Amino acid sequence: MDNNTRGCIAEYSFGVECLKRGIIVSFPILDSCVYDCIADTGKNIYRIQIKSTGKKMEKNRSTIQANWHVIYSEQDVDYFAVWVDLYKGFFIFKNIGQQSIRLNLDNDNSKYFNNFAFE
């Protein structure tokens, strides 16, 4: 599967998962929008940048490295939602200007796994 297809699947999968949890999702019509969707929890509205990775666990590593080429400002993107094929789920975490994150179900970032509460 190419990266564009994987990204599209991740975006729509995120929308479906939000809807299952009562979160309203809106996708911008403009493809060049900084964020991929807006999540409306009923209490707050968040701008979400959705990423995905099909990476496997690297030799001698216990995490999956997810990275992107752009620094997204905190004014443009509130949260990242990163789909990890290996875990079949999203890691959802606040944007603090990072360009990468190491993800695992057994490290500090495990608290972000399927964190649709946006905490």
The coarse silhouette is: globular
Work out the count of structural domains: 1
Order of helical and strand elements: HEEEEEEE
Determine the number of helices (DSSP H or I, runs of at least 4 residues): 1
Q: Which range best describes the helical content: under 10%, 10-25%, 25-40%, 40-55%, 55-70% or over 70%?
A: 10-25%
Distance between the amino and carboxyl termini: 32 Å
Can you describe this structure?
The strands form two sheets. Strands 1-2-3-5-6 form a five-stranded mixed sheet, with helices on one face. The longest helix has 18 residues, at 3-20. It has a single domain, classed as Trna Endonuclease, Chain: A, domain 1 (3-Layer(aba) Sandwich), CATH 3.40.1350. The chain contains one helix and seven strands. By secondary structure, it is of the alpha+beta class. A hairpin with a 4-residue loop joins strand 5 (79-84) and strand 6. It starts with a helix and ends in a 16-residue tail after the last strand. It is globular.
Would you summarize the structure shown here?
By secondary structure, this protein is an alpha+beta fold.
What are the SSEs and their pairings?
Elements: H1 3-20, E1 24-26, E2 37-40, E3 45-53, E4 64-67, E5 79-84, E6 89-94, E7 100-103
Q: What descriptors fit this protein?
A:
119 residues, alpha+beta, Trna Endonuclease, Chain: A, domain 1, five-stranded mixed β-sheet, two-stranded antiparallel ribbon, 1 helix, 30% strand
